[in-house]
Design brief:
With about 475 residues, this protein is α+β, with helices and mostly antiparallel strands. Helix content is about 35%, strand content about 25%.
């Protein structure tokens, strides 16, 4: 098996060229196809199945906290978009416009939604009148369009899939609680289900969402040391409500403006899974979201009883709740093993005539490729244990990569050196002045990622201006 690597021969080593490695995996694992629409990709069944599993998990999480799914239009009238000045200015460079309809010029341009705050505000203005109408806890699964100049599958495409939560509350305290609650939900999703450790924090004013009072983020480190903004949660205060005239009668029968949040997670999470867990053999998929959690590979399948036994084991494992595939194609054993390693299947089960005679099988985890002989009478228990150990192993590996590559720095020169010979995260103090934040980015190439909730005291002063520091900030080169 080890010498039969036809399916992975075209994968560039990640240490040789990480960008090409990523592209090779996306293509070889049949995750996407490039469409005839520039900057857009086709999600193939394997990629869409991963997204469906993420969607299923997160949808269940937010419904437990009272959120409901809705769907709003794809198009936003220009006049509606213009109502929130900071918001429209923030998205203006990325907006796609519809100017013709049915061969006729439209009286008013329509924006193809880059995000839906303005549409939700317009809707809330129609349906919220009393404190009894609050809170509104809405979520939308949809696609959005942002006219990116440079694109890469999952990381930046002109159209991508996501969920966007939009909520309205009677008090600022309720809205702020909602914002942080959803940040915690994203953290649970990434760490528990995607096995990706994240750093939680607040964006600086320069980096926050257009129109928000505060933006909170989960920042993840990829294998190459670069950052990926994994999910964000925004507190809007009552700014959008005032701009759109959303008012309600409070418990004292006085007109008040409600407080708003929004939060989002996209198919960028698939890129995070690839770049955080993948290796030179291909994908490594967390069990919770893998389309196939266990692949059964019959050994000497032409011999009597082998395929029947494989089907029997599949039925047992499916009954126990796992997603299982029997690889009964006429390809060689080596090809089958290499192919499903490349596709990131967490656990492989091998069964042949000798195994059947001995009432056992062989289990191979994707992370270590060690063969473990397992009695068939203990199969369900052992599979559960091995999948749990696999998830922990890939999380621990990612956590070690993250923690070992966060470099404390006190000067600009130290920050520059921290990026040699490879990218890392840098933690440094900051005075709070945007000019210094910009100077750090200009001199090091690293924008701020967030002000981590878990603060440390690196030094007393800002590395740019020497004034007293207010926060420890995480900096890093990002995708």
């Amino acid at each position: 098996m080890a010498n039969d690597k036809k399916t992975v021969s075209a994968i560039t080593s990640m240490d040789e060229d990480f960008a090409q490695w990523y592209t090779d995996i996306v293509k070889k694992a049949e995750l996407v196809d490039y469409s005839s629409v520039r900057g857009c990709v086709i999600l193939r069944p394997y990629a869409y199945a991963i997204w469906e599993n993420i969607q299923h998990i997160f949808d269940g999480m937010i419904k437990k906290t009272g959120h409901q799914n809705v769907y709003l239009p794809l198009f936003i009238p220009e006049s509606l978009l213009q109502k929130e000045k900071d918001h429209v200015e923030g998205f203006a460079p990325e907006v796609a416009w519809v100017t013709m309809g049915g061969g006729e010029k439209l009286e008013e341009r329509l924006c193809v939604r880059p995000t839906s705050e303005t549409l939700f505000c317009d809707h809330f203005q129609h349906v919220v009148h009393s404190w009894r109408d609050l809170p509104k806890l809405y979520n939308q699964w949809c696609s959005v369009v942002r006219w990116e100049k440079t694109t890469r599958p999952f990381l930046r495409t002109r159209e991508f899939l996501w969920q966007e939560g939009h909520t309205l509350h009677a008090t600022a305290e309720e809205a702020q609680k909602e914002t942080l609650q959803q940040l915690d939900a994203y953290t649970e999703l990434f760490e528990k289900y995607l096995c990706i450790p994240v750093i939680k924090g607040q964006k600086t004013d320069k980096e926050k969402f257009a129109g928000a009072e505060a933006t909170y983020t989960c920042e993840a480190m990829m294998h190459d040391g670069k950052a990926l903004q994994s999910a964000t949660s925004h507190y809007f205060g009552d700014g959008f409500a005032r701009a759109f005239g959303i008012q309600f009668s409070d418990r004292e029968n006085k007109l008040s403006y409600p407080f708003q949040t929004s939060w989002g997670l996209s198919t960028r999470s698939l890129g995070a899974i690839i770049m955080c867990h993948g290796d030179d053999n291909g994908l490594v998929l967390p069990p919770a979201v893998a389309p196939v959690q266990i692949v059964i590979v019959p050994v000497a399948q032409h011999k009597e009883g082998v395929l029947e036994k494989a089907a029997e084991l599949r039925d047992r494992l499916e009954k126990a709740g796992w997603r299982v595939l029997v690889e009964d194609s006429d390809n060689s054993l080596g090809w089958k093993c290499a192919e499903h390693e490349m596709r990131g299947v967490p656990l492989r089960l091998e069964i042949g005539p000798r195994d059947i005679a001995d009432d056992q099988c062989v289990l191979v985890r994707r992370d270590d490729l060690v063969k473990r002989v397992t009695p068939l009478g203990e199969l369900e228990t052992t599979v559960r244990e091995q999948l749990d150990l696999f998830a922990k192993a890939i999380y621990d590996k990612a956590r070690k990569n993250l923690e070992s590559r966060i470099i404390p720095c006190t000067t600009i020169e130290e920050m520059k050196q921290a990026l040699t010979p490879r990218a890392n995260f840098v933690k440094a103090m900051w005075c709070g002045d945007e000019k210094c934040e910009i100077a750090i980015k200009e001199q090091t190439g690293m924008p701020s990622r967030c002000i981590p909730f878990e603060q440390e005291h690196i030094s007393d002063v800002c590395p740019v201006c020497g004034r007293p520091a207010k926060h420890m900030v995480l900096f890093g080169i990002a995708y």
